[in-house]
Design brief:
This protein is an alpha+beta fold. The protein is built from five helices and four strands, in the order H-H-E-E-H-H-E-E-H. The N and C termini lie far apart (about 75 Å).
Amino acid sequence: MTTETETTPLTGKALLQKLKDLQHLSRREKARRCGYCRVTKNDRARVNIGEFLNAILEAKGVQLSSDGGKDGRGREPTYRVSVHKNGQMVIGSTYTQEMGLNPGDEFEIKLGYKHIHLIQMSDDASDES
């Protein structure tokens, strides 16, 4: 098998032109030939399809991310949380800001099998109790 990988992954117009030339190949082979492949410690080729697809979108002018979605530390929201050693989960300010939540807003917790629903309490319900 011959390898036609580039040393530097193609981007922009060069990537789009190369894709036209390779349209008869599989997505994985296109990515490999456009330079989105690296050799692992075990001398195995690993194709980075995600990075390849992102490069195609960017070459076509699609903006993938904006700094508006980042939290104060420069990380982008992942929409995933994990349970800490003390048993707590922290949702994070990015999500509460996106939902327009304010300090003191209250939620009812509904537990299900393998899921948790947080239901925002309305102002009328808190006034009645």
